[in-house]
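Hi V.,

You were right to ask for the full record rather than a summary. Here it is.
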Amino acid sequence: MARIAGINIPKEKRVVIALTYVFGIGKSLSRAILKEAKVDEAKRTKDLTENELKKLREIIEKKQKTEGELRRERRDSVERLKRIECYRGTRHKKGLPVRGQNTRTNNRTVRGNVRKSAGSGRKAPPSAK
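Predicted structure:
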């Protein structure tokens, strides 16, 4: 099993897709890495030679932030926003949408209020007396 950036990438998938299993590498970056390493995109991971795997590992480790380093950087930037108490930081603290989305409706998933059926979770109508 091929191991790149501390992640076991799937053997049966094409290399261009298998590289996306590494956090921080998407499809377009995967294509760029394969082009630089001169590896065919259509090749399956199991068909890669040890030399090709070594090239891919070197390129990813030297030029890209992946996995732990990238996650740490993202976490630190959110923590910084919270610490300086800017608008975005306060939204992160409260667990609300950060990027200006409407909150009157359509933010149930961010708040953790997921309704399974149409009527559940609603307030009961006021009783007539």
